[in-house]
Design goal:
Structural class: alpha+beta
Strand content: 15-25%
Radius of gyration: 21 Å
CATH superfamily of the largest domain: Kinase associated domain 1, KA1
CATH topology of the largest domain: TATA-Binding Protein
């Protein structure tokens, strides 16, 4: 089975090990720091000057643990595709994708069978994103992920993916 078919079945963008480490580093770091603090405060002979110090450090560790879990869940959501149903031929779908990329000034990073990976143009006002577009007989699958480490995306990747979906719908 080809990699793009596996991505469609899993409903996740195919990522390298490096990309996975990059996306989950902040989550893992926050989780580990929070757990270490929580363990040291509650299960060792750690001495405090006041009870308030123990409460504040427990709150601090719980916030770190919650942040780690939240960003891990959020990152998994970022990897999902947006789907556009289309019965056009594969040649027409490829023509649509390349036309949108050309109009949007995207740079082609990688092209495999039915799988395109672009990067948008750099701007000082926003992060650079990789746009993945996969197509098959059923339609288009679109995703946009940041190229730099960024623990919280604030919806920009989803916005770029939805704008790409709208552009594809406009060409159908």
């Amino acid at each position: 089975m080809q990699r793009y078919q596996q991505a469609i079945i899993n409903d996740k963008v195919p990522l390298s090990i490096f990309d996975l480490v990059l996306f989950y580093t902040s989550s893992l770091f926050a989780l580990v720091v929070g757990l270490i603090f929580f363990y040291r405060i509650n299960f060792t002979d750690f001495k405090f000057d006041t009870t308030n110090q123990a409460i504040i450090l427990n709150i601090f560790s719980i916030v770190f643990i919650a942040f780690g879990i939240y960003t891990a869940i959020l990152n998994r959501q970022h990897f999902k595709f947006k789907f556009i149903e289309s019965s056009k031929s594969k040649e027409e779908k490829e023509k649509i994708i390349l036309g949108i990329a050309n109009k949007s000034n995207w740079t082609l990073i990688k092209k495999d069978t039915n799988n395109f990976k672009f990067t948008d143009t750099f701007s000082w006002s926003k992060w650079r994103y990789n746009i993945t577009v996969i197509y098959d007989d059923n339609g288009f699958y679109v995703n946009a992920l940041t190229t730099q480490w960024k623990p919280i995306d604030r919806g920009t990747g989803k916005k770029i993916a939805l704008e790409t979906v709208d552009k594809i719908k406009g060409c159908l």
